[in-house]
Write a structure and sequence with these properties.
about 800 residues; alpha/beta; Rossmann fold; 7-stranded parallel beta sheet; ATP binding; RNA-binding
Length: about 800
């Protein structure tokens, strides 16, 4: 029939249906992706001049997210790293702090997954590792801002949160921002978590992640990832170790170092100074500085969390006139997030922190960075001062150095091209707070306890530093430092005194006596002059002088009961009732001291004092000598004696009926014939590790298979319900009634929706009245059961009914 001819019933034919809108949209998207991929391939990395994000071959979704977040111009590290990353190259990126390294890897992550048309069904596509939780949270927030117009699902996986909630959502994520420890935990424990298709691995603050603290964790994570992937490493102080690069399987990486051509590794807008302050004056100087800069935003770095807590509590009681905050690793995750948000939003405040706040965190408009404790190396110094003078803003940094640390740290700064100038404190503005802190510690035992912990943690942090040219723990004025913390004396630290006394402790007792006699009078005077207020009464008791001077009573007691002179036998014969005061001494059979009696002792007395040695004859063996009461008591048991006689062993019989022990020692020649012991041990461990690995893979496959079967069953049920005409709305929400124990006003019930949310609803159960109790409730139930007409058949029934009505 012609296309425009009338049909048999006289009606015109229906026009052809337009193409599906979804199909057209998909087609347009594929065309834009193919053109974008062609632009990326044709982009000249070295010859093109790039000033803004619009000059790069980026998708519309990424450009819209960057524009909405007010990112328009490129920094040096971004203009040099993003073009290489878009083309799939491995990158080692090093740039100054505050130079925009986060966007340098987040933009390529979004673009590369977008060009590959990555969906939630493809699983995890990009993994971003961060050394601290705060930095991971910050990266995730930036990712949410610039990726708001993409359809990827992104997740934040850090410690301090519910592991079960993360496990439920982990399988649907395309991009994960995480810390190494929690990531490895999910790789080992979460069955539905697959990392076989990861396209990109990013390490932010790579030098910190690859150091000894995270080395084994990162190695285990890399073992779970595919070899064919793109890897990017970014940090202010980048690693160049060949071993690190080999561990991460980098393929011809592009090394991009922005600050190496510059004169300094720190921003030019940063004014850097240091002042030499004795250890006992550091808190005075810090207090004076805070009091002089109340209208400033300041960060103060300490070497340990216990110091942070002590200084925060002490200064908070003294009220310097500016809001104080503290941040360290021992705090709970929620508190750490709240503190970082408060400090970022504040205009004038002071944050006491450890090195967890030294890397990558972007706090706006920080005026001062004070380092009260010397950093472990120049790289840590660079990261600390990088919290100020960010994005070409001005900032100032001051480093407090103890006199013994000055020379060594200045040499390290010269090697890293860090310009630091020395300054002095104005004597007029210097305030002393030693007396105030001491008074607070005497009044508040908890503050004194924190001070003791702060003292010990600081000395330990100096003791464990690798650079012994800078950190010299034996040159620290510990007594003066303890006084500045409000303590009556320096707490004892075992590892400091243990180094000097270890040889004395392990020496024989006779040598110790000789060495103690040779001590000079000056050492004795120093011991006496030490402040006894720090030590307990037990310490003072064992450190008293003239311990060998005994009273007459005690000397007489020892002479009568403890010596082996001629008076011993006479005293024992004279007073047998006082045996509990005598000192009984036992001798072994071959003890040479048996001949050490005086000439007045008879042989019979010596024989009486020596213990009688018993022997037990065992067939086929040498006689067993029983030379102690404890051993004699043990061998009174037949069960114990069988152990020595060779009986009581469990035997198994072979097919010929010959008995064998359950565990037999292998012949040495047979063992050596299979190779050396180390090789056999290594082979055994290798086989066991392989067996464990295969069992783990098998368990994971079983778990995944069960999950797939459940998913297929759900789909089948949904398909069957749809075919049967059941409504879709009936499956959207599933109510799970879970009575909450102990709710007197009526049990609550939780309604779990299909999207994972949980809502609370009230039951339809009738609430109790205020005058009802459990007995009334049971009585009411009984009355409800007994409702109905009462049948009266006899006179007894009538009397019972009447008595019930009357009362």
């Amino acid at each position: 029939m012609p296309p425009h001819s009338a049909s048999r019933n006289g009606k015109a034919p229906k026009p052809p249906k337009p193409a599906n809108a979804r199909t057209l949209k998909r087609k347009r998207q594929e065309e834009s992706i193919s053109s974008l991929a062609q632009r990326v391939e044709e982009f000249d990395v070295k010859g093109s001049s790039v000033d803004g994000f619009t000059d790069l071959p980026l998708s519309e979704a990424t450009l819209s997210g960057l524009s909405s977040s007010h990112f328009k111009t490129l920094t040096d590290i971004q203009s040099r790293a993003i073009p290489y990353a878009l083309q799939g190259r491995d990158i080692l990126g090093a740039a100054k702090t505050g130079s925009g390294k986060t966007l340098a890897f987040l933009v390529p992550v979004l673009e590369n997954l977008y060009r590959k048309q990555w969906t939630e069904y493809d699983g995890l596509g990009a993994l971003i590792l961060s050394p601290t939780r705060e930095l991971a949270i910050q990266i995730f927030e930036v990712l949410r801002k610039i990726g708001r117009y993409h359809t990827f699902s992104a997740g934040l996986v850090i410690g301090g949160k519910s592991l079960q909630e993360e496990q439920e959502r982990l399988g649907r994520m395309n991009i994960l921002v995480c810390t190494p420890g929690r990531m490895l935990q999910h790789m080992d424990q979460t069955a539905a978590f697959e990392t076989d298709h990861i396209q990109m691995l990013v390490l932010d603050e790579a030098d910190r992640i690859l150091d000894m603290g995270f080395q084994s964790t990162v190695d285990a994570i890399v073992d779970h990832l595919p070899k064919e992937r793109q890897t990017m490493l970014f940090s202010a102080t980048q690693t160049k170790k060949v071993s690190d690069l080999a561990r991460l399987s980098l393929r011809d990486p592009e090394y991009i170092a922005v600050h190496e051509s510059a004169t300094s590794a720190t921003p030019s807008t940063l004014q850097q100074n240091y002042l030499v302050t004795p250890l006992q004056d550091k808190l005075d100087t810090l207090w004076s500085f805070i009091r002089s800069n109340l209208k400033a935003k300041t960060m103060v770095f300490f070497s340990s969390g216990k110091q942070v807590r002590f200084v925060y509590e002490a200064f908070r009681h003294m009220q310097p006139g500016v809001s104080l905050l503290h941040l360290h690793g021992r705090q709970k995750q929620g508190a750490r997030v709240d503190i970082t948000k408060k400090f970022a939003a504040s205009k004038h405040s002071c944050l006491f922190a450890t090195d967890i706040a030294a890397r990558g965190l972007d706090f706006p408009a920080v005026d001062w960075v004070i380092q009260l404790d010397c950093p472990e190396d120049a790289d840590t110094y660079i990261h600390r001062v990088g919290r100020t003078a960010r994005y070409e803003r001005n900032g100032r940094a001051v480093l407090f150095l103890e006199p013994s640390e000055e020379e060594g740290m200045l040499k390290r700064f010269e090697q890293k091209k860090i310009p630091v100038e020395k300054i002095n404190v104005r004597a007029k503005k210097q305030q002393s707070i030693k007396n105030q802190i001491q008074n607070m510690c005497f009044k508040d035992p908890q503050l004194k306890y924190l001070g003791q912990k702060a003292f010990i943690s600081y000395v330990k942090s100096v003791h464990i530093q690798k650079d012994k040219d800078v950190f010299k723990v034996k040159e620290l004025p510990l007594e003066e430092f303890a006084a500045s913390l409000g303590l009556p004396g320096a707490p004892r630290i075992k590892f400091v005194k243990g180094e000097d006394t270890k040889s004395k402790k392990n020496a024989p007792r006779q040598m110790a006596v000789v060495s103690s006699d040779d001590e000079s009078d000056e050492d004795e005077e120093k011991k006496v002059k030490k402040d006894d207020t720090v030590r307990t009464k037990y310490d003072r008791m064992f450190e008293r002088r003239n311990q060998d001077v005994l009273t007459d009573h005690y000397t007489k007691l020892i002479e009568e009961d403890g010596t082996l002179g001629a008076n011993t036998a006479q005293t024992a014969d004279a007073d047998e009732d006082n045996d509990f005061l005598s000192v009984k001494r036992r001798f072994d059979a071959g003890d040479e001291n048996l001949g050490a009696f005086s000439d007045n002792d008879s042989d019979s007395d010596a024989n009486d004092l020596a213990p009688k040695i018993k022997t037990v004859q065992i067939d086929g063996q040498e006689p067993l000598i029983i030379d102690s009461k404890r051993r004699e008591k043990l061998l009174k048991s037949k069960k114990k004696l069988l152990k020595f006689k060779g009986k009581g062993k469990k035997l198994v019989y072979d097919s010929d009926g010959n008995p064998h022990e359950v565990y037999e020692m292998e012949d040495e020649e047979t063992f050596n014939s299979r190779g050396p012991a180390d090789a056999q041990r290594a082979k055994f461990l290798e086989l066991e590790a392989e067996r464990t690995r295969l069992a783990d893979i098998r368990d994971k496959e079983i778990a995944k298979q069960k999950k797939r079967e459940k998913r297929e069953q759900k789909k089948e049920r949904a398909r069957a319900e749809k075919q049967a005409g059941a409504g879709v709305g009936a499956r959207e929400r599933v109510a799970v009634l879970a009575p909450y124990e102990g709710d007197e006003e009526g049990d609550a019930m939780s309604v779990a929706s299909s999207d994972g949310g949980v809502e609370l609803a009230r039951p339809a159960k009738k609430q109790k009245k205020w005058f009802q109790d459990d007995s009334d409730d049971e009585g009411g139930k009984a009355k409800k059961k007994s409702k109905g007409p009462v049948q009266v058949q006899t006179l007894e029934d009538l009397e019972a009914l009447a008595s019930g009505l009357l009362g």
